């Protein structure tokens, strides 16, 4: 017998040590590899990206030459300490980044950009550097610069890690030199952004969102009664269902730090939302993006009533500086809603 719980009743706590211990791919990407990635035959850059990442993995696992071999041995092609996967959402960047992580021996770390900034906030910049500089590989998914503080901090973090010999790998929807554009006065932080960009060789991945490739449109929302009935039925089948009114949930998220959202949904098998409405405040919308990412990581189906989830964010937001974040969230939420519709 399962149960019905409410996310708004949860107040999770997470220590800095817990955050660091969680730097590995989510269950969705727990067993992926380069061989399980399915490149689109119409997009040769996807196959090329696999070759580039395999070569990068080999470079991580190959000790740097020393002594006379470094001075007189054959000179290897110059390679920057990091590799940066640039492409639209849904082309498999996270799959490839997780495959790289699995292909390299540890110690190693894998987390989203937000999780690394949360780590620095939880344990101080110096301690975070001291912890991460002992790693052979640091993978950063969804690299984004949202404000000047992030820019200065991540520029310094990437430089110190690369100076310590740590290999870096990142994914993003934006080229390194264009990070921060449309979100803050990035022109005032050209030096920091350039220092950050200099750490990476860029690999472009073209293609359409695989989550919607050849699939029908997202299912229409159901009624509140249907949400409640589906939640009851799932609980009867032994599932743990998080049933919440979205308006109340949005307010609750403002009282829970995003670094705790992974813990917030611990043990949840299905999410049931009543009264989805368009979010018009940027701070609320950005927090909901983090929740969407954590639900997608865990592959948690969504059953929802109210507005369709492709209207979760206002038109102004979908055309603004954070549009790529919102499009990614809508893409992921749509996929989870499709799974929830199948469950119903």
β content, as a range? 5-15%
Could you give the distance between the termini?
Answer: 18 Å
Mean pLDDT: 86
Helical segment tally?
14
Largest sheet: 5 strands, parallel
- Beta-strand segment tally: 9
- State the helical fraction: 40-55%
Derived structural class:
alpha/beta
Low-confidence stretches: 65-72
Task: Identify the CATH class of the largest domain.
Answer: Alpha Beta
What is the CATH superfamily label of the largest domain?
A: P-loop containing nucleotide triphosphate hydrolases
For the record, the CATH architecture of the largest domain stands as 3-Layer(aba) Sandwich
Output the radius of gyration.
Answer: 21 Å
GO cellular component, one term: cytoplasm
Pfam families: AFG1_ATPase (PF03969)
GO molecular function: ATP binding; ATP hydrolysis activity
Keywords: ATP-binding, Cell cycle, Cell division, Nucleotide-binding
How would you characterize this protein structure?
This protein is α/β, with parallel strands linked by helices. The chain has 2 domains: 3-14 and 212-343, 3-Layer(aba) Sandwich (Rossmann fold), CATH 3.40.50; 31-208, P-loop containing nucleotide triphosphate hydrolases (Rossmann fold, 3-Layer(aba) Sandwich). It has 14 helices and 9 strands. It has helices at residues 16-21, 44-61, 67-72, 93-103, 113-123, 125-132, 148-163, 190-197, 224-236, 246-253, 261-264, 282-298, 315-318, 323-343; strands at residues 3-5, 82-87, 108-112, 137-141, 167-172, 200-205, 240-245, 270-276, 302-306. The strands form 2 sheets. A 5-stranded parallel β-sheet has the order 3-4-5-2-6, sandwiched between helices. Strands 1-7-8-9 form a 4-stranded parallel β-sheet. The two termini are 18 Å apart.
């Amino acid at each position: 017998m399962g149960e019905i719980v409410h996310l708004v009743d949860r107040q999770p706590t997470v220590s800095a040590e817990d955050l660091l211990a969680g730097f590995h791919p989510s269950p969705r990407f727990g067993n992926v590899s380069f061989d399980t990635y399915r490149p689109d035959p119409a997009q040769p850059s996807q196959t090329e990206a696999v070759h580039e990442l395999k070569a990068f993995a080999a470079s991580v696992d190959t000790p740097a030459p020393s002594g006379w071999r470094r001075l007189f041995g054959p000179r290897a092609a110059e390679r920057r300490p990091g590799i940066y996967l640039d492409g639209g959402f849904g082309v498999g960047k996270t799959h490839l980044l997780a495959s790289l992580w699995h292909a390299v021996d540890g110690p190693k770390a894998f987390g989203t950009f937000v999780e690394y900034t949360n780590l620095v906030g939880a344990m101080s910049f110096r301690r975070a550097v001291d912890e991460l500089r002992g790693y052979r590989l640091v993978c950063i998914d969804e690299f984004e610069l949202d404000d000047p503080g992030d820019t200065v901090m991540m520029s310094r973090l990437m430089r110190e890690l690369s100076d310590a010999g740590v290999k870096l790998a990142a994914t993003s929807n934006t080229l390194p030199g264009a990070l921060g554009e449309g979100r803050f006065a990035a022109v005032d932080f050209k030096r920091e952004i350039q220092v950050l960009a200099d750490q990476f060789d860029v690999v472009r991945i073209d293609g359409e969102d695989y989550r919607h490739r050849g699939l029908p449109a997202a299912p229409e929302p159901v009624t509140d009664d249907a949400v409640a009935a589906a939640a009851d039925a799932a609980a009867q089948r032994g599932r743990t269902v998080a049933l919440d009114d979205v308006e109340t949930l949005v307010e609750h998220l403002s009282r829970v730090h995003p670094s705790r959202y992974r813990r917030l949904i611990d043990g949840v098998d299905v999410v049931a939302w009543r009264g989805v409405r368009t979010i018009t405040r940027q701070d609320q919308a950005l927090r909901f993006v983090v929740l969407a990412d954590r639900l997608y990581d865990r592959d948690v189906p969504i059953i929802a009533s109210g507005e369709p989830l492709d209207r979760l964010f206002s038109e102004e937001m979908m055309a603004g500086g954070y549009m790529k974040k919102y499009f990614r969230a809508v893409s992921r939420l749509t996929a989870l809603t499709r799974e929830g519709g199948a469950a119903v």
